């Protein structure tokens, strides 16, 4: 689990920590550490994979796109403002990571879901189907290259 490949952490603790997004879910306390979703620091984790010696990387990008907020969006309070700031920060980070990437071969998969909220659980089936289609398209492109 994590960059140190810890083995002293239960699956439940690891899953919670990797899903802990500040303001939505508090950090996980494991030992003396407070841990949050690693995507906060490395949105695609392609640098981490490269540092671990990956010879090939499969990057699945489910981040949001930069779309204007709906009218009244910021009237919803601090959580909405935090969501927007986090989204913008991660988009900038993702773009910079991809533009500066010079590592091993990478299969980049980007489902067409960036215009939707990841919190829209009623669309889970749609998210799964779009992920499946994006993966097939990426694999087909790669096979043809």
Description:
The protein is mainly alpha-helical. It folds into 2 domains: 41 residues, no CATH class; 99 residues, no CATH class. It is built from 4 helices and 4 strands, in the order αββαβαβα. Strands 1-2 form a two-stranded antiparallel ribbon. A two-stranded parallel ribbon has the order 3-4. Strand 1 and strand 2 form a beta hairpin. The chain starts with 10 loop residues before the first helix and ends with a helix. The mean pLDDT is 87.
SSE order: HEEHEHEH
**What gap, in angstroms, lies between the N and C termini?**
35 Å
Tell me the domain tally. 2
Residues in helices, as a percent range: 40-55%
Shape designation: globular
Mean pLDDT: 87
Largest sheet: 2 strands, antiparallel
Radius of gyration: 17 Å
- The stretches of 5 or more residues where confidence is low (pLDDT under 50) are none
Strand order of the largest sheet: 1-2
Tags for this model:
mainly alpha; two-stranded parallel sheet; 4 strands; single chain; 4 helices; two-stranded antiparallel sheet; globular; 145 residues; 2 domains
Task: Write a compact overview of the structure shown.
The protein contains 4 helices and 4 strands, in the order αββαβαβα.
Write the SSE topology:
Blueprint: H1 11-19, E1 28-30, E2 33-35, H2 46-51, E3 57-60, H3 78-99, E4 106-109, H4 124-144
Parallel strand pairs: 3-4
Antiparallel strand pairs: 1-2
């Amino acid at each position: 689990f994590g960059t140190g490949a810890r083995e002293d952490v239960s699956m439940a603790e690891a899953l919670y920590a990797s899903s802990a997004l500040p303001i939505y879910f508090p950090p996980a306390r494991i030992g003396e550490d407070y841990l949050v979703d690693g995507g906060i620091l490395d949105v695609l984790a392609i640098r981490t994979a490269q540092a671990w010696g990956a010879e090939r990387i499969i990057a699945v990008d489910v981040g949001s796109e930069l779309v204007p907020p709906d009218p009244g969006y910021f009237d919803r309070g601090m959580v909405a403002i935090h969501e927007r700031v986090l989204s913008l920060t991660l988009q900038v980070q993702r773009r910079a990571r991809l533009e500066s990437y010079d590592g091993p071969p990478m299969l980049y998969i980007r489902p067409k879901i960036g215009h939707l909220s990841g919190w829209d659980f009623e669309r889970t089936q749609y998210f799964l189907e779009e992920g499946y289609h994006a993966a097939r398209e990426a694999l087909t492109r790669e096979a043809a290259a």
